[in-house]
Amino acid sequence: MKVNFKYMLILFLILNFISSSCQSVEKKKNSQDEVATLNSKAIQIIEAGKENGDTTSSLLKADSILSIAMSLDSMQVQTYINKAKTLCNLKKYDEAISVIEKLKSLKENYAEAYAFQGFVYETIGEKEKALKEYSASYNAYEKRIEKKKDNLYDRVNKVIMLMFLYKENEAKEEMAKTLNDYPNDDIVINGKYQLENFNRQNFLNSIYH
Questions:
Q1: Are the C-beta atoms of residues 87 and 95 closer than 8 Å to each other?
Q2: How many domains is the chain built from?
Q3: In this structure, are 96 and 26 located in the same domain?
Q4: Could you tell me if 160 and 98 lie in one domain?
Q5: 7 pLDDT higher than 70
Q6: CA 93 to CA 86: how far, in whole Å?
Q7: Nearest to 103 by CA among 66, 144, 129, 152
Q8: Predicted pLDDT of residue 134
Q9: Which candidate in 26, 77, 106, 121 could, as Cys together with 129 as Cys, close a disulfide (CB 3.0–4.6 Å)?
Q10: Which domain holds residue 92?
Q11: Do residues 137 and 53 share a domain?
Q12: Within-domain flag for 115
């Protein structure tokens, strides 16, 4: 019988590709699991530091752990947010902004990144820059809502962005529409509570903790 070596070679390459792909998927999953573990560990260290009165030391340890997490998987959004929060608590605001800028470059039109950067700018007194970021965040939420109108987290967050843009009347109108559409939803009810009890400085203080 004549052996078709060309066919065997193609088959070998296909099988090798499948094997490599499976290994790549498994490696990616392992990396994601490890990054999630590191994020949890960093948060636990910060919380323990608060309880023990060793806040600065715990924040520095957490920052190092989050740097390792970013090196393992540079696409994990939560790592960037956690690292930026940690840096803000260390008063390293310029570094926090750099982290969020990197996140924005990785994830286009990411409303939460624009909002967080706005919060940081406002914290350090850069009001004009903050308003620019809030506006970008609002527009990003608008685009997401156009695609999925029942995303209630986005609808509530859009209302909060209106408050940060000093558009209280528009915020109340938007919340009224959302409440009319989803009167019994917990997310919406919580959003209504946040709007009614909105305190700009308290909200900013709570962002980093």
A1: yes
A2: 2
A3: yes
A4: no
A5: no
A6: 10
A7: 66
A8: 97
A9: 121
A10: 1-107
A11: no
A12: no
- Both tokens of residue 68? 């390792």
Residues 208 and 137 both lie in one domain: yes
CA distances from 40 to 35, 61, 79, 83, 94 (A): 9, 13, 10, 12, 24
pLDDT one-digit tens code per residue, 68-102: 999 988 888 999 999 999 999 999 999 999 999 99
Please provide the size of the chain in residues.
Answer: 209
Record the pTM: 0.81
> CA separation (Å) from 82 to 35, 50, 77, 149, 166?
12, 16, 9, 28, 27
Same domain, yes or no: 42 and 8: yes
Q: Are 80 and 99 in contact (CB under 8 A)?
A: yes
Task: For residues 114-138, give the mean pLDDT.
Answer: 97
Tokens of 148: 């999925």
In a domain, 3, yes or no: yes
* Nearest one of 138, 140, 121 to 130, comparing CA atoms: 121
Q: Is the pLDDT of residue 111 over 60?
A: yes
In a shared domain, residues 129 and 103: no
Pair 16, 64 in one domain:
yes
